[in-house]
Design brief:
By secondary structure, this protein is α+β, with helices and mostly antiparallel strands. The protein folds into four domains: 154 residues, Thrombin, subunit H, CATH 2.40.10.10; 138 residues, Thrombin, subunit H, CATH 2.40.10; 123 residues, Ubiquitin-like (UB roll) (Roll), CATH 3.10.20; 160 residues, no CATH class. It is 17% helix and 40% strand. The chain is built from eleven helices and 32 strands.
């Protein structure tokens, strides 16, 4: 029979205590072992392995029945934990969803029921009872836990592709599911799913503090940890066939690479190919494709309030396929599709100082709700050092591309500067960046397969903004085909006014008479497209990318010819300067989608790059002879 080192120590201690009590004379001062601290049996069975296992029937759950749970306290080897059953809590999770109440002994008396223990398998006479999954929600000196019966976890394999309505995503507040207290527990105490510690490696404390409201809404406990850079690929590592034995640590990987975000739990059952764990949901997402990795536990933080395992995610060994109420299901040897991201950051802490270049490479979990949030958080985090160096006088410029399978490349460009807005510039950039992915993933037709993301962020230690104040033309009478020139006055932040020259060629098709030229920022022209995108919620993936590619950058000055005829937006196409007769036919009720329209048509004819964020607009008039 094989014993781990820790198991041998526990057994020796137990035998030593027994021998000492047998040899010593009875003494009134001797205290018996507390009934709530069950000891390990004299003979500890070998740690469980992958493969078929006999199931302990729920009919056999009685108060005082003793068993053994397996979980990792340090390193990668599971250790035995004595368990004593309290009873069966009928329908605690819902109709025919029972929970087994029990108390733990051994090391668990010191650590309490810790985050990361979720899924620790419990055996009685060598038969699998279920997974440790719940704990008391308030301060308690007793290591009382709730066990999810293995019968409920085995049902996950038969569940279809339906999606739960109460998933935990960053899109909306979520209230953690908590169970009402049974008789006998302290007043106000509840049994609640053990928190799955979400470990962030490579993230600043300020980032976790900034995003705390999202975590609180989802009932997530963020923990700073290690393992950033340890996982570079979502392809299963060699030796995956023997990975994730019952009682070992298992992690779902949301971000991996130079930054990492992982959720840790414990393996309950492994049939050689499929793995069950947690005993409760991770995020209750239903069907998913998320990298699944092994884990290494550094220590267990003992606490009556919020005990947690501190751990590193190690190599990828497969993919999570289901995230359900009663646990997670993963498949060994399979690869989850992730989004490879490359972020290049260039900073100039002081004007005229040498630039500092950094590059971050990481992979992001692909999911309609989680991907935009993770993209926002990772970009914000990479800018934290830059933001502190640049104080409040910083401007950030982001440019890059998003490649989606089967679609044109999506080009992105934006600038943000610290100003009067309540949101700091790094968060402005991060929110704008997340919106690109939110619009891609929320189209109602196609789930995008994002192949790669590349972006460069440049920080300059000065506020680069310029407002359009006025404009004039060098001459106001021109002929078709001639060049029209003029000047525009820009007022920068705390600087002298700048006069920029602009020019354009008058189109040969422009009719004789009076015309208006609009000089504006990109946002002025983008409002129409944004309105169309909001109204046309039936856009497919290709049309969504088309609309995004039509958006104008906010660091250019645009020149547009304005006509007093409306523009109508049909899907991702703008139909400008429509005659009233055509507009009337298009707007006639046909039971179709509503049309977005503007009373005027602005046709961009030229633009001038401005090394600042441009705001405002001005108009000038001219006559075509």
């Amino acid at each position: 029979m094989r014993f781990s080192f820790a198991s041998a120590i526990l057994l020796a201690a137990a035998l030593g205590i027994f021998a000492a009590q047998k040899q010593a004379a009875p003494a009134p001062a001797t205290k018996p072992a507390p009934s709530d601290a069950p000891l390990l049996p004299a003979v500890i069975p070998p740690r469980p392995k992958a493969g078929p296992v006999e199931i302990f029937p729920l009919e056999g759950v009685k108060a005082g029945v003793k068993g053994i749970a397996w979980t990792v306290f340090q390193g990668t080897e599971p250790e035995p934990v004595p368990v004593e059953l309290i009873g069966l809590w009928k329908n605690a999770w819902g109709p025919r969803q029972d929970v087994i109440l029990a108390k733990l002994g051994g090391k668990a008396l010191r650590t309490n029921v810790a985050g990361g223990m979720s899924g620790s398998p419990v055996y009685i006479d060598g038969k699998l009872l279920g997974a440790i999954a719940l704990r008391i929600s308030v301060f308690s000196p007793d290591a009382i836990c709730g066990i999810t019966p293995i019968q409920q976890m085995l049902e996950i394999n038969a569940i279809d592709d339906s999606r739960p309505s109460q998933s935990k995503t960053p899109a909306e507040p979520q209230r953690r599911a908590e169970l009402s207290a049974p008789a006998g527990l302290l007043e106000g105490a509840r049994m609640t799913p053990i928190e799955t510690p979400l470990t962030f490696a490579g993230f600043h404390e300020s980032t976790l503090r900034e995003f705390r409201p999202w975590f609180e809404q989802m009932g997530i406990t963020p923990v700073q940890g290690g393992a950033a850079g340890a996982i570079r690929s979502s392809t299963p590592a060699p030796g995956w066939q023997n990975a994730l034995q019952p009682g070992e640590a298992i992690a779902g990987v949301l971000v991996s690479g130079d930054l990492s975000v992982t959720g840790l739990g414990t393996v309950t059952y492994n049939d050689g190919k499929k793995v069950l764990g947690f005993g409760h949901s991770f995020f209750n997402l239903g069907p998913l494709s998320m990298p699944m990795s092994k884990g290494e536990v550094l220590m267990v933080l003992s606490s009556q309030f919020q005990p947690n395992k501190f751990a590193n995610a190690t190599e990828i060994v497969g993919a999570l396929r289901q995230d359900r109420h009663s646990g997670i299901l993963g498949e060994l040897g399979t690869t989850a599709q992730t989004i490879p991201v490359t972020l290049r950051v260039k900073s100039q802490p002081l004007p005229g100082a040498p630039a500092d270049n950094k590059e971050f490479r990481f992979n992001v979990f692909s999911h309609p709700r989680w991907t935009p949030f993770l993209m926002m958080m990772t970009v914000f985090n990479t800018l934290q050092d830059l933001n502190s160096a640049a104080s409040d006088e910083a401007t950030f410029r982001l440019s890059g591309s998003i490649r989606v399978e089967g679609q044109p490349e999506l080009k992105v460009s934006n600038m943000a500067a610290t100003g009067e807005a309540p949101m700091p510039a790094p968060m402005q950039i991060a929110v704008w960046w997340a919106d690109r992915f939110n619009r891609l993933f929320q189209n109602p037709h196609d789930l995008p397969s994002v192949q790669s993301v590349t972006a460069e962020i440049v920080m300059q230690a000065e506020r680069q903004v310029a407002a359009v104040e006025s404009a004039w033309l060098d001459r106001v009478e021109v002929r078709p085909g001639e060049e029209l020139t003029g000047r525009v006055v820009l007022k920068p932040w705390r600087g002298e006014r700048q006069v920029k020259t602009f020019k354009l060629v008058v189109p040969n098709s422009l009719a004789k008479g009076d015309h208006r030229l609009l000089l504006s920022d990109g946002d002025t022209l983008n409002r129409a497209q944004m309105m169309a995108a909001v109204m046309h919620r039936n856009l497919d993936l290709g049309q969504t990318i088309s609309i995004l590619n039509q958006e104008r950058a906010n660091n250019r000055l645009y020149m547009s010819l304005v006509e007093a005829r409306p523009t109508v937006f049909v899907d991702d196409q703008a139909m400008g300067a429509l005659p009233s007769s055509v507009l009337g036919v298009m707007q006639a009720p046909r039971g179709g989608r509503p049309l977005a329209a503007t009373p005027e048509t602005a046709r961009p004819v030229n633009s001038v790059p401005i090394d600042s964020i441009v705001s405002g607009n001005a108009s000038v008039r001219f006559t075509v002879k």
